[in-house]
Amino acid sequence: MLRCFDDSVDASLVDRGSFVCGHKLMGHPALSLESLCRVLPRLPPGQVMYATRRLATEDNFEKTFKQRPLDRSVAETIETIRESDSYIMVNSPQVDESFADIYQDLIHDVQALMWERGVGDKAISPKLYLFIASPNSVTPFHIDRYSTFLMQFRGSKWVTVSDPWDERVVTSPDRENYVSYVSTQLPWTPEKDGVSTRYWFEPGQALHIPFVAGHHVHNGPDDVSISMSIIFNTPQTVDWRDALNFNQRARKVLRRVGLGPGPVGVNPDRDALKARAWRTWAGWRGY
């Protein structure tokens, strides 16, 4: 039985499309702003990343958090976050004991959904991400190299999510470059939102964001936003990821003769063959 998500969760849609369900974690003591003010400063510094400026939808999401600001500590950022246009992202808060039980419960639920969906019963490399953001702050447009369940605990926001593999939103070359870390700058225009789904996301709700689905976030104006995601891979998404890596390298070669590789996410047998070829080549090269 699922302990964190309610009965509206639709396992058949996992990594096929986005959907909203309810979560049962409201009131968990680890997710209060007061608790976070105590816990975050004691986490290893490399796990707490933040920006102290207003971000834009078209910004490069992954490069936003490369450097820590010199003029403000994480404690000061939390204390002033309502007025400071700040954004905090915490990688793996589960290393602190206050998140241990919630982490294990979420893994249990994700694996139950995987089993029901028929994509294995053991989550690959699961971990938590925690987000604390000022009112009206923006999470830039990006895709994820994993599957995600995002849960809202405080504040509300708009979350815009495209269908995975939608070439109108993210082209195959851009997707391949992003997943292989060759380039993490994804072009965004407002027109892309016209072929995506826009959710008004409130406390108590959970949103599934499929593997490589384009998405961005705009927090509401009234309160600080606190949200958390559990990210994970399945055997299927690992094959997709490796097939995208294969395509990225193969595209360079095939371009010389005016050809391109077949897109990932269309033919499972072809994707599996590409994934095996990539793993063989990467192992030989020592990647």
The major pleated sheet works out as: 7 strands, antiparallel
The best one-word shape is globular
| Mean pLDDT rating | 90
Strand content: 15-25%
Helix content: 25-40%
Order of helices and strands: EHEHHEHEEEEHHEEEEHH
What's the N-to-C terminus distance? 39 Å
Structural class of the secondary elements? alpha+beta
Tally of contiguous helical segments: 8
Over all CA atoms, what is the radius of gyration? Answer: 19 Å
Spatial strand sequence of the major β-sheet: 1-9-6-11-4-3-2
* Low-confidence spans: none
Quantity of strands, as a count: 11
Structure description:
It is a single chain. This protein has 287 residues and is of the alpha+beta class. The protein contains eight helices and eleven strands. The mean pLDDT is 90.
Ordered list of secondary-structure elements with their pairings:
Elements (H helix, E strand, L loop, with lengths): L18 E4 L10 H7 L8 E4 L9 H4 L9 H6 L7 E5 L8 H18 L6 E10 L4 E5 L4 E8 L2 E5 L10 H8 L10 H4 L3 E5 L3 E5 L5 E5 L5 E9 L1 H21 L12 H18 L2
Antiparallel strand pairs: 1-9, 2-3, 3-4, 4-11, 5-10, 6-9, 6-11, 7-8, 7-10
Helix pairs in contact: 5-7, 7-8
In short:
This protein has 287 residues and is an alpha+beta fold.
List keywords for this structure.
4-stranded antiparallel beta sheet, 8 helices, 30% helix, alpha+beta, 287 residues, globular, 7-stranded antiparallel beta sheet
